[in-house]
Amino acid sequence: MDADGTPLRLIQEPVTVETAPRPSGLVAPARFRHRGEEHEVAEVLRTWQDHGYPHGTPRRSWLERRHRTYFRLRTTEGRLFDLYLDRTGNRAHWQWYLAREVASRGEP
Fold first, then answer.
1. Is 15 within the bounds of a domain?
2. What is the pTM of this model?
3. Is the Cα dihedral 82, 87, 88, 93 positive or negative?
4. For residue 84, what pLDDT band results from cuts at 50, 70 and 90?
5. 99 within a domain of the structure (yes/no)
């Protein structure tokens, strides 16, 4: 993030992700491919869940909520990214997205 805490680059595009188990037993991204460029994950810095409702959606049912698991990653090149797994619908429709690049080198 820059000095005022905003992402350096919003992306919000689907990506191809290879996963690997973490010591905690959870599965996390090990590498991802975006626009032909491969990024290897050196470290998962943190994870969090988003179960909110999309903007403008009446809050009626848990089925209308977002079901996303976010991962803040540091790549082997030292870049920081936020990826998320959108778990909407059945498992066959789950999709990985590259949400944003948080920093270009090192952690802010």
1. yes
2. 0.77
3. positive
4. very high
5. yes
